[in-house]
Amino acid sequence: MMKDALFGGVNAAVLTAMNDDLSVDLDRTARHCKWLLANGCNGLAVLGTTGEANSLGISERISMLEGLAERGVPAGAMLPGTGTTALTDTVLLTRRAEELGCRGALLLPPFYYKNPSDDGLFAYFSEVAQRVGGNIRLFLYHFPAQSAVPFGIDLIGRLLRAYPGKFKGIKDSSGDFANTRGYVEHYAAEGFEAYCGYDGALRDLLQIGGAGCITAAANVCSSLSAQVWRNWNNQAGADAQTTLTAVRNAITTVAPIPGLKALLARHTGDARWTNLRPPHLKLTPEAQARMFAAFDACGLKLPAAA
Questions:
Q1: Domain edges within the chain
Q2: 112 is catalytic
Q3: What integer is the mean pLDDT of 187-199?
Q4: CB-side exposure of 300: number of CA atoms within 13 Å?
Q5: How far is CA 293 from CA 243, 286, 288, in A?
Q6: For 37-86, what is each residue's pLDDT tens digit?
Q7: Which of 44, 98, 122, 251 is deepest in the core (most CB within 10 A)?
Q8: What is the number of helices (H) and of strands (E) in the chain?
């Protein structure tokens, strides 16, 4: 396990609570963030894929960061997603995150134009690093199934050499552990932090020197993920990992964002948690029942709701 990682441990890819008119509900989102920090999370990856960030406008994203900070969510624990298709928006959002006290930002690649060259990506991230300046650390978001723009080993090496200390780590949501291992083997010795987006890989990643996880499932199972984190090198951790993998598999029997929101709605007794922005849709009653049954079969008991 990597020691002293900036966001080392369990990070939830935080769900965004929506009102019935599909505006962001800052009060409920902040309560959920605090519940996560009280129940196993070391950090909060807000404004990510699971948080429906790409369905939010840039002004909404800034308002969400400001609103969470105003409601007492520690900015130092937040790792906001600030990567957009527009260079200037990425810079604006990343700078505001640092002004609020965030130590890092998680950046998608510029994903609208497909098959960019490594030279093109290097140019984009060079502009971001130079224009953002400051002390905020930049984390790359490798999610080729959604972005269709991967981060290769060579590109990361170029960025690390050109901007020492600025590019601090990567979230790997590819589900390909060999790829995640490659990031660790090539760059962990330089302090580059690798985080898995797949809960089933957490213990394996910690055992080879990875930093932790940034996952959607942590919205409901952060306390279990923390057991794996604390016991990564013993049997208790192995046992917790078995349950964690089962929980993840249960959640992904349906579309994960509406599935997780349905679980939170059930746990909190607040049906508004099932609100999503299109094109996401609420689960059908049949799909919801199937997912609940699979989840309950794992035996995980959630901590008391916030």
A1: 9-246
A2: yes
A3: 98
A4: 30
A5: 15, 11, 9
A6: 999 999 999 999 999 999 999 999 999 999 999 999 999 999 999 999 99
A7: 44
A8: 12, 7
- Which amino acid, residue 231? N
Helix (H, G, I), strand (E, B) or coil at 105: strand
Marked catalytic residue, from 16, 49, 94, 268: 49
The DSSP annotation for 146-202 comes to HHS----HHHHHHHHHHSTTTEEEEEE-S--HHHHHHHHHHHGGGT-EEEESSGGGH
User: Could you tell me where the beta strands, DSSP code E, fall in the chain?
Assistant: 9-13, 43-45, 104-107, 137-142, 167-172, 193-196, 212-215
239 φ/ψ angles, rounded to the nearest 5 degrees: -65, -40
Distance of CA 88 to the CA centre of its chain: 22
The pLDDT value given to residue 87: 98
CATH code, 9-246: 3.20.20.70
163 is catalytic: no
Q: Which one of 34, 166, 168, 171 is the catalytic residue?
A: 171
Mean pLDDT of 192-207: 98
Predicted TM-score of the model (pTM): 0.97
